[in-house]
DNA sequence: AAACGGATGTTAGGTTACCTTACATTACAT
DNA sequence: ATGTAATGTAAGGTAACCTAACATCCGTTT
């Protein structure tokens, strides 16, 4: 089992995730409803979150603190996802859109007063050998 | 927050621990009853396990597979605990006992056919930066 | 100002997961 | 054969979680 597997293992119930992220259950479920996260489910339909999910929630929280709305955050996060995909044919229109998002993202990520989160975004990844 | 804290954070419900260790709930509770592990509890009295707890359970399972009984395992594990304590005055009798255990332990640890555990003992620690 | 929509709170009713306790079983040692 | 350690299983109860619905707060639009 490699780190990638470990990071995506469904481990945490929503209660623990609430503590780790200082988000309410309502918020977490709402973000899932809006497809910002996609936690696994137990056989009995209860959510099980991975380290990746928690990291993602911390990012979401971070961006929300900076005034972004969920639609914008969704764009930013999906942008991160496609970056993982190796080579990919892309239409001209898409490229400019993506570049735009890149700019937006670096702008936003810069100016951050810190919130009251117990875990800074990215800190959770220190659970792992490789980042 | 350092790695030591992370390793002892109460994160997992018993259901997840069952999957991680391939132990039954009955077994896990029994080991707690016999003071081999000491998981935290939620406000509602439900067990919450840390990475350390899971590692410990994997060790327990390992030793059980080798034919040790819980009393022996408890000794071995407590032996590991005291090793963390830095310098410590010790009586003559205790020393020989501990040496005996050391020998026992290295003997046992050697000859291991592998069980059907999904996680080898020690593997879980790879969740962390420092081992 | 009023209406709207996004994000979150709250409540209700139902289900799943977990709790302890007690008794049954299995396997090994005496 | 009896005893004990380790585990299974069942019952009854509680905690944690689920969805759905409605309420609230707040910034934006009309």
Main attributes of the structure:
homodimer; about 130 residues; Multidrug-efflux Transporter Regulator, Chain: A, Domain 2; globular; DNA-binding
User: Measured on Cα atoms, how large is the radius of gyration of chain A?
Assistant: 15 Å
Strand portion of chain A, in percent?
under 5%
Structural class of chain A: mainly alpha
Oligomer: homodimer
Largest interface: A-B, 17 and 17 residues
CATH architecture descriptor text of chain A: Orthogonal Bundle
CATH topology of chain A: Multidrug-efflux Transporter Regulator, Chain: A, Domain 2
Number of helices of chain A: 6
Largest beta sheet of chain A, briefly? 2 strands, antiparallel
End-to-end span of chain A in angstroms?
A: 16 Å
Helix content of chain A: 40-55%
Count of the domains of chain A: 1
Order of helices and strands of chain A: HHHEEHHH
Strand order in the largest sheet of chain A: 1-2
Number of strands of chain A: 2
Silhouette of chain A = globular
CATH class of chain A: Mainly Alpha
Q: Could you name the ranges of chain A where pLDDT drops below 50 across 5 or more consecutive residues?
A: 85-100, 110-117
Mean pLDDT of chain A: 78
List the topology elements.
The structure is a homodimer of 131-residue chains.
Chain A: H1 3-8, H2 14-21, H3 25-33, E1 40-41, E2 47-48, H4 51-65, H5 70-84, H6 92-110
Antiparallel strand pairs in A: 1-2
Chain A binds a DNA duplex (30 and 30 nucleotides) through helix 3.
């Amino acid at each position: 089992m490699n780190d990638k597997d470990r990071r995506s293992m469904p481990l945490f119930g929503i209660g623990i995730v609430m503590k780790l992220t200082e988000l309410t259950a309502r918020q977490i479920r709402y973000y899932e409803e809006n497809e910002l996260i996609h936690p696994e489910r137990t056989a009995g339909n209860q959510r099980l979150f991975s380290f990746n999910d928690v990291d993602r929630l911390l990012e979401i929280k971070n961006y929300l603190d900076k005034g972004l709305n969920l639609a914008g955050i969704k764009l930013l996060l999906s942008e991160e996802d496609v970056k993982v995909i190796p080579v990919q044919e892309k239409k001209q229109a898409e490229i400019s859109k993506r570049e735009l998002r890149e700019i937006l993202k670096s702008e936003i990520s810069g100016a951050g007063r810190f919130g009251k989160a117990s875990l800074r975004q990215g800190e959770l990844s220190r659970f792992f050998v490789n980042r």
